[in-house]
Amino acid sequence: MSLADNITAIRTMVRLARFTDKRGLKAAAYKAAGLYLERLRTGRTKAEWVDLVQVNCGLSAARAYELIAAANDTKSLAETRAATAARERARYSRKSKGSAAKRTADSGNYRQLPAITGRKSRARSKAENLTDKAS
Questions:
Q1: 46-103 pLDDT per residue, tens
Q2: Suppose 29 and one of 15, 16, 65, 69 were both cysteines; which one would form an S-S bond, judging by CB atoms 3.0 to 4.6 Å apart?
Q3: Residue 12 domain boundaries
């Protein structure tokens, strides 16, 4: 299989998996993409392979490694999804806890501003002049 055919097969499998609603077909397409990615990896350095995957296939290196692991039955797609969901839940809770802590810290710390005396603002004095002239 040539390089162009291999890249076309990877792109086709990933697109098929993204746009289908059938779980079995989605899993099979991701596994097939992983096998094609593994074939693409053989005989190349890591830098060459990463460039090929990112530029020609539209995948990140991390996602490509996940698909290879799914194809080799090292890590299932369900395990990958569960790890991603747990990571996102932890990130969301850290984000919401940080903003809640900031809100509670800022809520009671309002300081009283001193009353403005003396000089009036330009807009205020213009408004007073207009009402004086109108009367």
A1: 999 999 999 998 999 999 999 999 999 888 888 888 988 999 999 998 888 766 656 5
A2: 16
A3: 3-76
51: in domain: yes
Residue 120 lies in a domain: no
| DSSP 8-state secondary structure symbol assigned to residue 44 | S
Q: Tell me how far apart the alpha carbons of residues 59 and 11 are, in angstroms, rounded to a whole number.
A: 9
Beta-strand (E) ranges in 17-66?
none
The count of structural domains within the chain is 1
Q: Which two tokens stand for residue 5?
A: 């055919």
Q: How far is CA 76 from CA 30, 38, 125, in A?
A: 11, 16, 73
In this structure, is residue 101 part of a structural domain? no
Inside any domain, residue 38? yes
For residue range 32-46, what is the model confidence (pLDDT) as tens digits? 999 999 999 988 999
pLDDT for 54 equals: 92
Q: Say if CB 78 and CB 48 are below 8 A apart.
A: no
